[in-house]
Design goal:
mainly alpha; 6 helices; 179 residues; 4 strands; globular
């Protein structure tokens, strides 16, 4: 999440405009923080600029492979198994601390993204474009392998007509026409 640190002298607006990264999205951040833009955060005070960690709101995605532990894997596997037919995807999770995360406890699932989601660590500035494509190609290899195994078990893939029907149904419900 984009976070700035107060210095006890400058307003939040001044801090946003002085930050190399935040200034690029200053219009958005100042609009989102308009009620506190003229406040002066205390020296060392952390000021989180947005509540949701997305690219369009300035979040940075890093490779957290070093946080994978057997406890974390067991917790994620236990959660994933509660979704019938879920074999592949990405959980967006919030936890109070890194210690909670590696222990697989106190996790709040914000979102579950299915097979079309990408691994967000590909956006880590340390990864090259080649590394990112390698991750994506491996992800799609696994997805197709799962699809092949499901077909062998007798699962019928959705047809184009099925997908169009589901899309129409979704639009109808999203527009507030349940019947």
């Amino acid at each position: 999440m984009p976070v700035l640190h107060g210095d006890g002298k400058r307003t939040l607006e001044d801090l946003i405009l002085a930050d190399d990264r935040a200034v690029c999205m200053s219009d958005f951040y100042l609009r989102k923080n308009s009620e506190r833009a003229q406040q002066v955060p205390a020296a060392g005070e952390k000021v989180q600029l947005v509540e949701i960690g997305t690219h369009c709101r300035g979040a940075i995605f890093l490779d957290g492979g070093d946080t994978i532990t057997p406890s974390l894997e067991q917790a994620i596997d236990r959660i994933a198994r509660t979704f019938d037919g879920f074999f592949f995807g990405r959980f967006d999770i919030r936890v109070p601390s890194r210690q909670d995360f590696v222990a697989g406890r106190n996790m709040k699932i914000i979102e579950l993204n299915g097979v079309t989601s990408e691994a967000t660590h590909i956006y880590d500035p340390k990864l090259s474009l080649f590394d990112a494509y390698r991750v994506l190609f491996e992800q799609w290899r696994i997805a197709f392998e799962i699809g092949n195994l499901n077909r062998a078990r007798g699962v019928r893939p959705a047809s184009v007509a099925d997908l169009l029907s589901l899309t129409r149904e979704y639009r109808r419900l999203a527009q507030g026409h349940p019947e």
